[in-house]
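Might I ask for a little of your time on a matter of protein folding? The record follows directly beneath this note:
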Amino acid sequence: MNRSIRSAVVVVIAATAPWCALAQADANSEKIFNGYALHQLTAAGLLYNAKAKATYHKALGPLVKQPWLAKLDGPSNEYRPVKVAGADYMLGSTCKNHDCQNNTIVLLWSGAQNVVYGKVVQRGKSTLIGSPPPAVAAELEKLWKTEFRRAN
């Protein structure tokens, strides 16, 4: 009886393998961040992939000199998929350690497009990074409010 059960398991696994491969083909869900998919990581996880890190640091421009932005090492949630202006992105956010009220960032990353867009708020001053198109910029404002200005 054990032999027939093992055979059935092999057939089921073999039958589902192509579907699993297709599901993992999306660039935003590939395990290219130290063996993890980005949705399994917090904000700093973006920096585990050299290409994503370079894209992010380029998008930051002169803000890359701010250690909390360069390292994304503040408190954050895991990335999650979102659709913005008809394109798929991973949404991440974090804030500056010990100063979350005044220093925050919300990020959109697309592996398929190799772009990072974001909104940084430092002591009330808002800066868009990555030159987002107008529709994406408008959505970044909404996403930032959702992430950081929740009603208690």
Notes: The mean pLDDT is 84. The two ends are 58 Å apart (CA to CA).
